[in-house]
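Dear colleague,

Thank you for sharing your sequence with our group. We've completed the structure prediction you requested, and as agreed, I am returning the results in plain text so they can be pasted directly into your records. Please verify that the sequence below matches your submission; if there's any discrepancy, let me know and we will rerun it promptly.
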Amino acid sequence: MNNFFCADHSREIQEDVIGSATNYQTYILVECPTPWVAEAFNSKWVPDNLRILVEDVKRAKLPINFLLIANDQSHRGEETTLLIYQQQEGLSNGYRKQEFKLPNIEQVAGFVSKWLAGVTADYAIESSSTRDILVCTHGSHDQCCAKYGNPFYFHAENTISDLQLKDMRIWRSSHFGGHRFAPTAIDFPQGRYYGVLDSDTFKSILTHTGDIQCLNKVYRGWGILPNALQILERELMLRLGWDWFNYQVTGKILEKSLDNNTILGELSFEQPSGTLYTYQAKLIKDDVKTQILKGSCHASQEIVSVKYAVSNLWLVAKKVATYS
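Please find the predicted structure tokens below.
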């Protein structure tokens, strides 16, 4: 039995969780009852054609992440929910959602193959403004997601019903990275990642209220941005408050030093009023926060978790919207 818990170790050394959101263009979420084995798509309810499709997509190195999702109704359901979240070009507030209800999980692979080829089939349902919150409870992949993810999932379900939040769904999810930050979650359609969650910060995330500084501890970053820029985004978010969540954002890395210790990043955001701001910042490797650690409970080798600090931040341009 492995007595090393990567999440406990990460907390002990006070690892900063920022910059750990993974960057995918597309998420394909397939409803599938638990239990799931360590490699989720080898689980018994996953048909061979779907497992093969996932392997093919991985082999082709497409920027697509397949995840299994389930809730308390999944094993009773007569149909299979398929959610596809796609990143937008340019200024955006996250991902665009398409939701489909398929008669059963056997039909997912054929449907997704057509979708990838640009053939849109039916089964679409009205993509409402629902938020889908994924909590990793994939304990067979990493024991920390069982130890912290499972209790948190139940707690989160209760919180959502206590707050009577409509248009909000919570799902168990297979592994999406960063189990040492368990309990960890992705909040779609924005695609923001969180870790080391507790009840108070979760409430703030759901309602966008309370002291925004609480995100300093739990915000892993925004999946639409490169990892180093996630640190710059957090900096602006903490300065500008919860309104930040209503802004359209885009960012890019302008230059990197050869040793990757210094990065020049740029982030533009548009407020609902139409005013567009562009900031640039110098990001410098933070030797204090950069740590060597085990990335998961069963890791045989340690990894270097590189962190950056925003050394200076300046406004490059401000364009006020003009309405003729």
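Summary note from our side: The chain has seven helices and 16 strands.

Kind regards,
the structure core
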